[in-house]
Structure formats: C-alpha cells, structure tokens
Design goal:
Helix content: 10-25%
Structural class: mainly beta
Number of helices: 8
Bound molecules: copper (II) ion
Distance between the termini: 31 Å
Number of strands: 30
Mean pLDDT: 89
Strand order of the largest sheet: 11-10-13-18-15-16
Radius of gyration: 22 Å
Amino acid sequence: MNNKINSQRRKFLQYSGITAATIATYPSLLQAKNMGTSSKPSPNFHADVEIELTQKAVKVPIFAGPETRVWKVFGKVLKGSPSTIGNLPGSYLAPTLNLQKGQKVRIYLRNKLHAHSILHWHGLHVPAKMDGNPMYAINHGETFVYEFEVLNRAGTYWYHAHTHSVTAKQVYSGLAGLIIVSDKEEQALDLPKGKYDIPLVIQDRKFDRQNQLVYGVNMMQRMSGFLGDQIMINGKPDYVLPVEKRSYRLRLLNGSNSRIYKLAWDDGSPVTVIGTDGGLIEKPETMPYVMLAPAERRELWVDFSKKPIGTELTLRSIPFDGASMHGGMMGGMGGGMMGRRGGMGRGMSSGRSLPLGGDYLVLKVKVVKHAKSNSSLPARLTPIKPLHLRDAANANKARTITLSMRHMSALLNGRSYKMNDIQPDEVIPVNTLQLMAFDNGFHRSMGMMAMPHPMHLHGEQFQIIKREVTPRHRAAHATISEGLVDSGWKDTVLVMPGEKVSFLKPFNDYKGLFMYHCHNLEHEDMGMMRDFLIK
Ligand SMILES: [Cu+2]
C-alpha cells in the first residue's frame, strides 16, 4: 500500500469518525484498493454537452448565525446550452443537470475534497465504467471523466456520491443533486412547465448549536438508519412554497439517508401521481397518500386554482406501521443521544429525531396570487411498453435476493459487499430480461430484525409485477399499501417487512459490473450491496 493512499485512508477514517472498534466489524473497509486514478476524455466520443463538476468543502449560510460546513458540487457548462446546469435557488445541494434524451454528455468530475469520492447517476442507463462504481473513486486533486449518451426517457433522476463505506456521510454532507431529463414525448403534453414545474428534494438533517451538520454513526443508528430532527426541502429549513392559483407539477425526490415518508395533504385532498422513478406513468393515479422511500421519485400534479389567496396547505408525513425494528423505538432513542438544537428561527427542530412512521410537517404551500394561465390534467400521459414474463430468460425460476440483518450486518443472499467478489448467481447474460424478486422475510421470518429496505438496482429501469406479504405482516403493510405506485418504470422499490416483491428487469446494451443495494444509506455502508456482472 503506498503512502498516499495510506494517508488518504487515515484522513477519511478521521473524517468519518470511525473508530478502531468499528473497523473490526467492517473488514470490507480495508479492501478498497482500486481508488485513485484520474481518467481522460476519449477522442472518439463526440459530446453534445460538456459539464465540469467540482466537489469542494465550503461554508454556506443555512440559518441565521454561523455558516454551515458542507460538501458542495459546483457546476460549469463547458459546451452546450447554459441551461444544461440549473441551481435550486439558494441551495447548497449539487446543481441540477438538465439533459435531453439522446444527448451525448461528457462530465469532468474534479475532486477538491480531502477524501476520495465518486458520483453515480441514479436511474440512468450508462456503461459500467461511467456508472460511479465505488472502485472508481478518485482522490483529492484527481479528475474522473464520464462519457455517456442519455438513453433514458424524460423523468426526474438524480446523482449522488457512491463511495465505498462512506456514501451515507458524503450524501448527508451535500453530495447530491437532481438530473431532469426531457424528451419530445413529454414536451408534447400540456403539463405545467417552467416556473410551474417544481423540483422538491426532501431530506432530514440534524444540526448542532453552531449550525453544523451532525451525523451519528453509533451502531444503533446504523442498524435503523440515520434519522434527523429537521426536514429540509431543497437544502433549506422551514421551506414555504409560494404558488399561483393554477396547477403545478411537483417533482419529489426522497434524498434522505434512511427516512421513508407517507405523504398526504392536510386538507384531506387526495394525492394525484403522474410520474415515478423512470418518468411519467401512463395515466394519473389518485390515492389518499403516497409513499416515498429513500431514492424514490414521485411526480405529483396539484391544482390550486380553486383555493382562495392566502390559503396555506401542508404536505405531511402521516403515521404508518412496520417502519423500524422494535416498533419504532430506534428512531426516538437515537435522537436522545444526538446533539441538541437550540436557537431561534428553527421552528421545526426539537433536538430529537423525528420518529420513522411519525406525524410531522414536510412542506408548506401558500397560495399567493392569481394566475394568467392554467393547464388541465391530461387523461393519458405517456405510453409504457409493458415487459412480459414470457420474454424473461428465466421465467420459471426467479433470481431471488433475500434481505437480512444479523450480527451487526446487513446482507443480500447472506453476503456482505466486497469488491471483485462476483458469485455464480450474480452473473447475468447481457441483452436478457430477468425475472427477479426481493424477499424481505417472506419465506423465513426476520423476527425483531424485520425492517423495510428500499432496494435499488443500477442500470436499466424495471417493472414491478407482484407483491406478496406474509399473514403476520399484513396489518402493518395495509398502513402503507394504498400509497404504493408500482406502475411505470422503477429503479428503487420499497420492500416492507414480511414482503416479497417480484419484478422484470432488462439487462441490455452494457456489459460489466452493476451494483444492487439497499438505498437506506447506512445499510448500504454496512455492506448491504453487491455487484452483478453482466456478460
Ligand atoms: Cu436496507
């Protein structure tokens, strides 16, 4: 091991606050050997747009008083329309990348952090080398060059750090932003556009009295996942969205480390969903509330045209069961041990973690003025080509991935993450459709360790075909089931305790390593991640 990597690793251990005792339970931490290689642009790739993203540690104003240290991504368009990069107003989150289907994109990622890091384009179907696998993490001063064509349909995607063992901490510190892909099919629809098309990144955070981010890494918080005491929207506390009397398209992303939301309007209006992870669904779906697990996206259509000016409306997360180990105890206990908040102007913060499955405010909307135009909800959105079981290469034998937690580890088919550790059942022939399933204690009870897991697969989007729940967990499941959106294209699926979710996933075009993992980022860092080898 050379000295540079050694000192890098020391720094990152210091930064992560990982103690020697913790390392003993994370043997895979010491296996990250492949870090530290800049890459170069390919002369054969003719980019339509070129973007430079620079990661830096900076201080930003979030609250009154001391500025907050965050990890920020700065974006610059080197080639192409200046609108390729947009910023969420006043946000410390990474810039929004506005891409078109069919565009060839080159991104220079420059790492100015004193830590190794790599970015992943969540939901995009890109070559393995361009996917942000942790093995490509770069050190301070190095550059990784990404080149890919946008093959995805219009939709709300995102990007975030995917660095071995420290993804949770890095995303928490600020390394996450939106990718909005558009295409002709979507543009032809009369959906709210421009300032009436609003992205909303929902995250929970915790700050100390000096306004600094607090990230707890005790073992209990790792097992349940980090839970903050304050909801941030687009990186801002106490967020109020001013709207006109007309309809809006709201693009929700759950960018939280582990928090699952059950979102409902407080005036009892149903929620109208028009899109999910992989873009618009075929037709709007109306439900009493909508579930949003970490990394999932939901696009909502909301009409404020009949609301009087001055109306305040809130989107709340409302109670549900089966949220965490020991019936929700973990969230509350974790909160008590963490730094307390004090101070002014932080109305929503209590110093205690908001319990998972609790009742709390997420977003406030205020109707402030009349509108000059409106758009009505289209009855049909975009057609979705259904995948068929008969086309699966393994229609009679699903590739089942069992989810389990035991002895301070989180496992997939009983295995923990390791680089370059492909097992025979993780090899998938390229250009095939596969029948797959996530089994979260459906066939074998997890007992007290039953937890929800938001499962994500890299590469192409998939379609959900079936959910099954054991009798023991049906009552808890019924508290979330009306808010699931299983139509359309998905890249992340919430798998509740006692549940098995079956889906069809295409593995087209690209060979190489593609990750599959839990998007509860503490679970991911604990090893609940593996690679598929597509060949
Ligand atoms: Cu998990």
